[in-house]
Design a protein that fits this description.
Chain B: Keywords: Ubl conjugation pathway. Chain B: This is Ubiquitin conjugating enzyme. Chain B: It holds the Pfam family UQ_con. The complex is a heterodimer of chains A (about 625) and B (about 160). With about 625 residues, chain A is mainly alpha-helical. Chain A is built from 20 helices and twelve strands. Chain A is extended. The relative contact order of chain A is 0.09. Chain B has about 160 residues and is an alpha+beta fold. Chain B has one domain: Ubiquitin Conjugating Enzyme (Roll), CATH 3.10.110. Chains A and B meet through helix 13 of A and helix 1 of B.
Amino acid sequence: MFPTLPPPPTPRAFLSDVPLRFITPPSTRKRKAAEAAIADDTLPLLKSATKAAHTRNATSTSLSDTPSDKDEKKKEKEKENTKQQDKLDIEHLTGFVSSSSSSVGQSQCPKKRGIATPATTTASMDSDDDFMSDMSSDDFLGTQGSDDESIGEDFGDLDTGFSDDKELISHQRQPFEVEFKVLDPPEIEREQLAQINNVAAILGLPPESAAILLRFRRWVQQERLIEEYISREDEMLEEAGLGTKCQGVAKTEVVNDFMCEICCEDGPDLETYAMRCGHRFCVDCYRHYLSGKIKEEGEAARIECPGDNCHRIVDSRSLDLLVTDDLKDRYRELLTRTYVDDKENLRWCPAPECQYAIDCSVKQRDLFRIVPTVVCACKHDFCFGCSLKDHQPTPCLLVKRWLQKCEDDSETANWISANTKECPRCQSTIEKNGGCNHMTCRKCKHEFCWMCMGLWSEHGTSWYNCSRYEEKSGSDARTAQQKSRASLDRYLHYYNRYANHEQSAKLDKDLYLKTEKKMTSLQSQSGLSWIEVQFLDTASQVLQQCRQTLKWTYAFAFYLERNNLTEIFEDNQKDLELAVESLSEMFEKPVPELAELKVDILDKTAYCNKRRVILLSDTAENLSKSKLIH
Amino acid sequence: MASSFAGKRLSKELLKMHEHLPPGITIVKSDALDEWQMDIRVLDDNPLYKDQTYRLKFAFSDKYPIEPPEVQFIELPSTSDTPRPIPMHPHIYSNGIICLDLLGQSGWSPVQTVESVCMSLQSMLTANTRDERPPGNSEFVAYNRRRIRDINFVYEDDNV
């Protein structure tokens, strides 16, 4: 069920016992100092934002473990312990197991834990709101505490130069990350069943009726369903297509003097079936009808009685009685599909052929301030809010607007910018494709000069030859034009950078495919072991991830107001950009040089990743307080 | 050609209609089991449809009656012996295509018959007072090349 499960981190076990952790080569030490300086440089600007202080702690304390920091950490560690379990989930699913978490003694079998804790899903659903507020306050402190350690460890491992470099992108929960869980189809079905049985037991209904009720109310919270049921039982049963109280077992019957209204067949031994609405048809027709609905129309949760104007829903017991086994499987699959579609906290992984669903409690209404990136067990990372590929740090709403804008505008805008001017009166865009300079706007009939944009009437007798550059009307028109061109240029500025990173990410992806080859040849040329050349793989992954982030920062920046926070954002962006470009350059060096560059690449990789984390954490924090967009 | 399931059902319907037909409904053509033609008249004196007869074409798939038949009005020129115009109605396009939820996958019930569909259309005409075509009629008629069953109608108007 978990084919992508990472292998247990056995090679690391002995490595983490080796006390090499604090042996730091001088070059690295220097860089650390430089980094601390950068962190101190940029971040004090954030004084207004309280959270920013924590970010700074997160980055600088990791480099110099002062005693006071350790005390603080201890406290935070306690808080953290309760959340450890969930964090482990994330680590597991993303395939990066850090040494800190493996020492806690986690189980190696995520499947088992999935079964053991179905309650967590239901529980978190009930207290979603608490959870949200929790996350925005305490949790941030908590994760930062543990973060300090993990970064310290990353460097320890890094400096030994032997361990699993994947840790550089270890997944401790940062402010920009959200909690989620990956579910496989059997788990989804179990979850469904648990809820159905629960509601059935509380309301004293047969499970199949409870299932219909739950599906009818699109799997709302159980409390709400039960409350509604108690206050208006009969109406609700009627609306859900259950009619009044249900009783008896589903069975087919032979009825005297019966003619099936569908096939008009009659006969003394015709097997018939009717649900509690009493609309009786022969079993054959019923079967035909149901298979048509399930196979052709892909319906499952809301198949109605074949009778005219009868809205009674065919329950699963009737269905089991009537249809063939292959259809039952399809039926259950469809039910699961509607279950996931209906539940706000579930979403299918959009990767092709992927059968997992993600359970995440971020609400649609919070999407303007949270970017819930999740990673499926199939390794596909996407946004839980909109199912698009990961688009940190830009909120879904802006992503949608940006993509729309790009689709409509970018090519056209380039052309417009190069080839047209606007009518000084009505701002219609005009292309001059020939003729003289005397323009008459087809829309508002304004007459102007193409050269100076001034009123044509002011040109007097100097027809076709504009020498009147100083006229007031002309300079006004030109200013207005500059303004509108400026906004176009602004858009193109961001678009070109966005598109550039998109393009580079594609190229890097090709590079990634070549990475393995490179690793093999590096291994044979330099005598390094397979584990020792893993750093290339890590670098390539980090490169990809950073490009992805950078790409979206440009779309994001297009929508930002000009203020201090934006300036900090752009500084962060610039830092990341520089780091990424220099890593990209190193990465492309010929194989013989790579072995020498190993330490540099490792350093740069870690640095890139850290810049990315800083940028995203910062943005996520400001976003969560609605400071960036209004 | 309709399968035996649809065929059996249709021959039974035919048998029943030969015995008795509601007023204003006549069978024009029912020799093949995949396409029938029916004539319908409006019984009251709604000025829009007074003294007119309309021709309906029913096309059955072999999944009938599980699947709805394709039903549309067809036109015979006013010069013919039996002129058949397309009735004026805000849910009937000028090419005879009808927008009625009853005839869509979701509104159809296998209990419906050719006869009941004819009666529903009779009453749909009777109840109408608006002498107009659906909005966007000309575009639809000019550009629609889809089969009726593939058109995604939106049934938003419950009044007519």
